[in-house]
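By convention, the token line describes the chain's fold. To illustrate:
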Amino acid sequence: MKKAHSERHRTQRTGWLRAAVLGANDGIVSTASLIVGVAAAGTSSSGVLLSGIAGLVGGAMSMAAGEYVSVSSQADTERADLARERQELATSPAQEQMELTAIYVKRGLEPELASQVATQLMRHDALGAHARDELGISDALAARPVQAAMASAVTFATGAALPLLMVLFVPMSSLLWVAPLGSLLCLAVLGSVAARAGGAPIGPAATRVTFWGALAMAATAAVGSLFGG
């Protein structure tokens, strides 16, 4: 007897991976940009460090709150759709079976086979079948607000800590070029790791995150130089 073929799919990672990458990327870009902008304005080392720490704390809380609210809205919509579907299954099961059959016909099954599949799936788990095939809701892709909020806050703080370490260990005379270069290197690594975890090409992912990070830091450096004392 042949051993069952086992496949590993990366779609189950999309929820936490998106929040984690967004958090870490934002942590590096926003904090490094803040540090570069404040340093370009001629602020002292302690002032730059304080600005960076404030950016880390405020940014982590903002990311957590924003992610929680956003994903909670998605979860509310999913629950409302499931409640509506549950009601329709209770009041019009035959119509719901026809609806599911039509979905399978559109996907390529013969009408008779589609009807048999719909009948068996609804007998096994009617709500689950409609949630998955009609609404596109599954356990792997379901909204998880707390998980997304925690992932965003922790990864933002982790990303923001990287440019802060440069402030601690790099002299102010070198900070304006060490901080951007070091942060861009971290962004490139982050983009590569995220692409590898998601099974995507590494080059484009690393390039786009590095480009936007460089653009943000260049903009804040220009503002700091223009309005600095």
Summary: The radius of gyration is 25 Å. The chain has a mean pLDDT of 84.
